[in-house]
Structure formats: C-alpha cells, structure tokens
Amino acid sequence: MTTVYVPGDSAARAVGADEVALALESEAALRGLPVTVVRNGSRGMHWLEPFVEVVTGDGRVGYGPVRPDDVAGLLEAGLLDGGEHPLRQGPVERIEWLAGQQRVTFARVGVVDPLSTSDYEAHGGLVGLRAALAMAPSDVVAAVTDSGLRGRGGAGFPAGIKWRTVADAPSSVKFVCANADEGDSGTFADRMLMEGDPFTLIEGMVIAAYAVGAGEGYVYIRSEYPDAVRTMRRAIGAAAAAGWLGADILGSGFSFDLQVRVGAGAYICGEETAMLDSIEGKRGMVRAKPPLPAIAGLFGRPTVINNVLTLATVPAVVAQGAEAYAASGVGRSRGTQVFQLAGNVARGGIVETAFGVSLAELVEGYGGGTASGRPVKAVQVGGPLGAYVPASAMDVAMGYEELAAIGAMLGHGGVVVFDDTADMGQQARFAMEFCAEESCGKCTPCRIGAVRGVEVIDRILVGPPERRADELVVLEDLCELMAEGSLCAMGGLTPNPVRSVIRHFPGELGAPLVAPAAPGETGTP
Amino acid sequence: MGAVRAWSPERAGEVIAEHAGVRGPLLPVLHALQEEFGYLHPDAVPLVAKALNLSRADVHGVITFYSDFRTQPPGRRTVAVCRGEACQSRGGRDLAAHAQQRLGVPFGATTPDGEVTLDQVFCLGLCSVAPAALVDGRVHGRLDAGALDSLVQP
Ligand SMILES: Cc1cc2nc3c(=O)[nH]c(=O)nc-3n(C[C@H](O)[C@H](O)[C@H](O)COP(=O)(O)O)c2cc1C
Ligand code: SF4
Ligand code: FES
Question: Which chain A residue lies closest to B139 (C-alpha atoms)?
C-alpha cells in the first residue's frame, strides 16, 4: 500500500485538490494499484497546489501543481515510486524554498494527518504539554516570558506578561480564548494551522490554561473559515477521547474543557474585547480598557486572549526551552514569524523564518517577484490597517520595531504584493471604505470619520483638480482625528494605509494630476 | 449549503433548546436557526428572546449587527466574492464588478428569480490563490470572470 498525500487545506481545495484526490483513487483502482490517500495540511507552497506527495523509500516526493487530468499520466510515469514527470518537484524536504525556512510553529503543518493523534505524537506532539505539566504553573509562565514570545495577533504584546496578570488574578473561574478571527486580508496562517495541525493549538491552550489556572476555553473562529471550524471541532473531539482535554489531562489531575465558537462576519470581532462580547452573545462592540481582559474578561472573569499562532508556538517554546527559542530573531522580536506571502506574487504561501529577514528577501527571494511578471509597486504589510510600503523601502528588516521605524507594522504577518498597475488612490479609498463598513460604531472619529474619508478621497480622485490641495488638508485633518481620537486600532490605524499612499505615491492621491506641479509643490504634506 | 426546511415554530423551538444550554448561547442559537431554515424568520426573534430570557431588542440588535445573519430567504445558490486587498491585487475589483453585472444585482441582493444571492466578503484566507470566492459554501481560488461564470451556471 502506498501512501499519497493530497492536501485538504482550503487553499488547495480552492484550486482543485478534492478533484485530484478523487481522480487518484479512481485511476489507481482502475490500474489495480493499492493507494491510501491522506488529506494533509498544506506545506504552504501555494503556487504548487494541489501539491501531491508520495511516500517512497527516498522520503516524500512532491508533484505540483497537479490537475485532475494529470493524474493518469502521473501514475503511468510511476508516481507511486517517485517517477520522473514534468510536475515532479523532488524530495519535499530538499526543496530549496522549504529547506531555507525555519519551521517551528508550522513544523507539522503539511507533514501530518491533521486528525491523527498517533501521527501527532510521532512528530513531537505533546512533548511541550508533558514538560509543562511536570513544572509548577508559575515556571511555565516564566518560561514563556523568558522566551520573548510576543503576541502574533498584531499588537506584539509579550505573552508571558499577559499570562502572569491572569495567573495572579484571584478568581475560581478563568478562561483561555484563542483569537481565530483572522480578519486581516492577506493572512491565512491561523486557518492553515487549524486545518493542518489543530492539535498544536489545543496543546498550546492546555498549557496556557495550566499556567494561569483556567478551566474552560474557547476558540473563536470566523465564519468565513468553514473548513477550519469543522477540523477544529473534530480535533477537540479526538483530543478529548485521547485524554488530552477534559478531566485529569494525561493523568496530571488538571482539567480543561474547550469549545469552538463561530463568528458571524464582523471584522471588529477580532479585536479582543469585541470578541469577548461576541462570545457572550452580544453585538461585537469594543470595550473601553481598563479593565484589561486579563483582569475582567469573558463573563467578567480573568481571561487569556491570544492569537492562534501565539498559542500554537507555546508547545515548541516549552519543549525546546526558552533560551533556544529566543536564540533566533532580531532586536526585541524573538524567535520565528510565520509570514504569509499573498496577492500578486509568483510564489505565494507560508514562509516561517526568524524575525529580521528583509521584506525584499520575502517578496523577491521567496516570493519570486510578482505573479504578473511586472515590477513590484507596493507591498501592504500587516493587513488592511497596515501601510503600503513602496518597492524602494523593501530592504526593511521584518521586526516589530524595525517596521514601526518606517511607519509600517508587522500586524499578523501578512505581506500583500501589488504590481505597477495598482491604483494607489483606490487602495487608499478602500482603506476608508473598509473601516466604514466594519466599524463597530462606538466612537465618532471612526464611525463618521471613515465615511467622510471615502467622500474626501472621492473628491480628490474625481473632483476638480484645483480643489485637490484643499481636500488633501481636509483628509490629513481627518486622519489626524481618527488616529488620535479613536477608541481602538480599527479607527486608529486606518489612517496608516491612507497616509502611506499620500507619502509614498504622491502623484496618485496627493499632487494634482492635471495641473503641472510648480517647483516645491509636490503635494506631500 | 445543505437543504433547508420551511419555517416551523415547533422545529425552531427544538433547535433553540438544543443550543440554549451553553454559556453565551445567542450566537450559536442564531447560527443553528439559520442553518436549519436558511435565514432568520421574523417570528424567530420573540421565540429566541423568550427562550434565552433576553429582550426582543437585544436579539434584533445582534441579528442586525452581524453581516452573516439573513432576515430574508437566500437564493437557491449563494455566491460570495472576496473584496480584500490580496484579491484586489489579482483582479478582484474586476471580478467583483463582473459578478454584479452578470447577475444584475448589487452585493447583498438576490436575483429577481430567486436563483442566486450575491454577497461580498472581506477575505477568505485564500489570499495566496487570489482572487477567491465562496460558491454554495465551497472555496474557489485563481478565479477570473469565465471561471466564476461557469461555477454559477446551474
Ligand atoms: C480591529 C482589530 C482587529 C483585530 N483582529 C484580530 C484578529 O483577527 N486576530 C487576532 O489574533 N488579533 C486581532 N486583533 C488584536 C487583538 O485585539 C488582540 O491584541 C490579540 O488577539 C491578542 O493576542 P496576541 O497577544 O497573542 O496577539 C485585532 C485588533 C483590532 C484593533
Ligand atoms: S475605533 Fe471604530 S471599531 Fe474601534 S471602538 Fe471606535 S468605532 Fe468601534
Ligand atoms: S483577500 Fe481575498 S481571500 Fe484574502
């Protein structure tokens, strides 16, 4: 029996992996070839999806991108023995694009059968949890603090410090919530982890719960991710059956219950306090802080809220030790980051590597430039609230402080590439439109400001050219007001992409396009 | 999309009871009702309010806040086109315009024959195989106008 892996990851399914899996089963049966098809997660080489892997004496050999009508020919070419074929990419572990990465959080994604508990343990699963359960809870918190692990949801807050606050808060009921709302466009790592290696998130959440003394947890997944919801629910069932969740976990005496909650199409519910309101069954409105959720969070109880990737990195941190994890990175950004290459990029997907890699290395090196073959014009880093970085600034090192220094932000690690046909004025307009659409409505600068922002940008883009300079002043005032006066980062950071367009692409939003600019009058404020 | 049932207050009561026992039951209850009937019938509001001991205004407020919840029956087929930035960088704006033009309805509307409901969505996590759309709840990537049309054809 030969094992063949065909990803069940949504990105692979979106480009035909289900059809490829079916074709493989039927074509192999026709030829009397004994084949077991396993639906793994994706390796993250999305330009090669559907990416089929065959287990051979020489390890796993990959082929891609495979279309259903390639399958017969592949089998004729000796697919099951790793035979030669134009789609053959060679032994997977030796593919340069992958071999150059440092996969820590994503170590098992694409490798294992996502719902197999035995596969999970065979690939290093539970090592972190077993180690944690043998430690005092406060030592677990200390290890996470010492590792330098920072929140991957966007704000980059040190995970260990948040855990310490929850651990110290006196309460008989505490919660751990995984933020799997992943609303930022250009990001998909949470989704891939939940679809490809869900037990790692569960393990991380159990460790967090043990460290802070929580008995119940929630994974809040956006409804736009139906596959992740399904896989996560099944994984929780399997983990409970294996004794990794529920009462007396792994015989430790510690108990923790976990369930999935599904969002309902509101970007703002990724903001942690809006998420709490949503789990409680309310409109997803942002809460004023203080109190911090770590003190009074879900149902008023002390609550750890961390991003999926933060929690999924915890098992590795505990397993390898804080020092080993902190050994890689740049400045105050320790360890690895799961970058997501998206948009107009030749080789899109997941690049997990130490912080400090340059944006150019990601976009031009790993990404291979644009998919269209045209020059890169801009890269939006960090989701819809992130700045558009011009091609000329791509030598920036990817770290929280390093990006902040050029007016950009890492966010959740999304890197969206645009070629020279992009209309940056329209991109700026979209930032305001998105904010107007998704604002929770609690504060005026955001609720009204974003609507006004769309109107002003429209006047700049299509109104009389002689009015542009004045409208730009209005736009800048509006950005100032939103940045300074908004309650949360939704309204507060929406000016980021807008200002980046004004600053780096002045001809497209700032300077008058029709009237020739007088010397010194570039339109850049 | 699974097959949906015609609205029935009795069945609704059962669905509500199945999900009412969890902490913070409102969203799970609304999701379950929508899955069962395809949308949230106006009569569901008082039923849910009573069962969960909430005011009707509370339930109504939640339904209107979240874009997922429908108060009208959807078309036989549903299409949600991604309008996120990664999709924009790969022709998503044209795809979104094409979908509206082809179906003759704006986002958020159902074709007059009741066949297709067209929605917008902001990112499906398929940004590396953009542009993307959900058709009848199934993910599709690397789309163009022709590919979308053939998916929407019956
Ligand atoms: C508008 C807005 C949207 C957000 N969306 C997400 C999200 O989708 N996922 C996420 O993990 N954090 C999101 N955050 C950040 C969360 O508020 C919070 O900082 C994070 O979940 C904490 O986890 P971490 O420390 O592990 O990053 C968002 C914040 C804002 C202001
Ligand atoms: S900034 Fe916008 S999203 Fe945030 S609290 Fe204010 S209105 Fe709500
Ligand atoms: S932006 Fe369209 S799928 Fe993410």
Answer: A14
